[in-house]
Amino acid sequence: MPPEHEALLILTRQRFPALADCPCEVEPILKGGSDRRFYRFTWAGGAQPPMVLMIYTQARRDNARFVPATRRLAALGAHVPAILGFDEQRLFVWLEDLGRDDLHSHRDDPWEARRPLYLSALAEAAKIHSVGEDDLTSADIAEMEPGFDEGLYEWEQNYFLEHFVRGYLRRETDTSEVQPAHEALSALRSGLATLPRCLVHRDFQSQNILLRDGAAWLVDYQGLRPGLAGYDLASLLFDPYVTLGRAERHELLEHYAGLRGLALPDLRGVVYQCAAQRLMQALGAYANLSRNQGKTHFEQHIPSGVRNLAGVCDEIPALSPLRGFFC
């Protein structure tokens, strides 16, 4: 066992004395673009179900939000891992192990097999979205990341322009040819900022939805904050990591509208606007992670992200000028 794993096992046994003499395998979980580290502890003989140790840093403000977000979502009845132990000084969190199966791993399954998994994920989203902004106290808000407002939407758009358009595509963004695209960005962020907000996951995509006994369980929700339900839905339905057809997206939107008692045409319009916003953020992230942080595997998702963004621009005429940045 590598020395680092041995040290983590010693600390874990100190935290859970009943496991002091139990043999254990320690396995790093290598996944995602986070600066956090994850390790799976598998105890011999079934003395304890497997657990996951999350080690975070203070480099990102939202890392410290994970524990309060877990407790908040658990109180709503959402499927999130149980917190088995928390060492605030070491920045260690021991969690229930939800397993290795996620929604992304079923991306090549036929739709008939994927449909119930997506419906389960939407049921979890509906639990989160049932909390309106007016239901949150000032103390609640203080535990979360800043809510989506026009400034945050603008930050995401600038992230897209800096890392994807200028950095990855090597295109200028201050020419007269793209002025209509800038006007579309302005209209998009100001329009989204006027809509009523609720609690949102913030990164509701296939790799952050684990599956256990056919039910969806959520992870990576430390970005929990007030925002638009449409942003979460767009993150799932236009996820560049998987392929969903137009008919499948419509079916899922129709199901969610039924869960929440919403008008489908209104919901669809907001989700497509949010999809443009979310996809720009994702493309900025893929470019930044692959070019500047050495995580080159994220580059493979850029083509599907561009296709999805182009498709959204085709569906919503007001967004079509955005094509000037990437087509």
Short summary:
This protein is 46% helix and 13% strand. The protein is globular. The protein has eleven helices and nine strands.
Task: Explain what the structure shows.
The protein is an alpha+beta fold. The chain folds into 2 domains: 3-96, Phosphorylase Kinase, domain 1, CATH 3.30.200.20; 103-326, Aminoglycoside 3'-phosphotransferase, Chain: A, domain 2. 46% of the residues lie in helices and 13% in strands. It has 11 helices and 9 strands. The protein has a 5-stranded antiparallel beta sheet with strand order 1-2-3-5-4, sandwiched between helices. A two-stranded antiparallel ribbon has the order 6-9. Helix 7 crosses helix 9. The termini are far apart. 38% of the residues are buried. The model has no long low-confidence stretch (mean pLDDT 96).
Structural features:
single chain, 327 residues, alpha+beta, Phosphorylase Kinase, domain 1, Aminoglycoside 3'-phosphotransferase, Chain: A, domain 2, 2 domains, five-stranded antiparallel beta sheet, two-stranded antiparallel ribbon, 9 strands
What's the arrangement of secondary structure elements?
Elements: H1 3-15, E1 24-29, E2 37-43, E3 51-55, H2 66-75, E4 83-87, E5 92-96, H3 111-129, H4 138-142, H5 150-168, H6 179-193, E6 198-200, E7 209-212, E8 215-218, E9 225-227, H7 229-237, H8 246-260, H9 264-292, H10 302-315, H11 323-326
Antiparallel strand pairs: 1-2, 2-3, 3-5, 4-5, 6-9, 7-8
Helix pairs in contact: 3-8, 5-6, 5-9, 7-9, 9-10
